Amino acid sequence: MKPVDEQELVRAVCKAMERISQQSPSDDQPSEKKKGRLILSNNQGMIFTQASEIIRVEADSNYSTFYLTDNERYMISRTLGFYEDILNAYSFYRVHQKHLVNLNYVRKFIKGEVDLVEMCDGSKVEISRRKKTRFLELMKVHEDAQERVQD
Length: 151
Known about the structure:
Elements: H1 6-22, E1 37-42, E2 45-50, E3 54-60, E4 63-68, E5 73-76, H2 80-87, E6 92-96, E7 99-102, E8 106-110, E9 116-119, E10 124-126, H3 129-150
């Protein structure tokens, strides 16, 4: 409706683009590069990235902060739960209420009073007690799969 609020229009277009990007590619778009591609929308525009470029995602209320391999960080106004459903297909696991990690970038598991996961960028992420066993199982499966690929 007139008059058009420019910011509202940009948000609506970004939201529509994000929804379209979340849908599976059609048969006439067989490109492997499109698999795992995400569009992250924030108040400054859109970030085009691959799931493989995301090291981890951290929740902050209704926002999610993405930490990428190029040391960039982006805060997106979507919940971690929204992205958990999408990223689980790309070797991500929710190790804590506030943290979703890419298993490909886990460097260490550190036992302690509070168990931690150290990521390739040096960040340390708390792992909840109830998620620990499943995380270690997934890391073992992930490691076995990596060994088979290298053989």
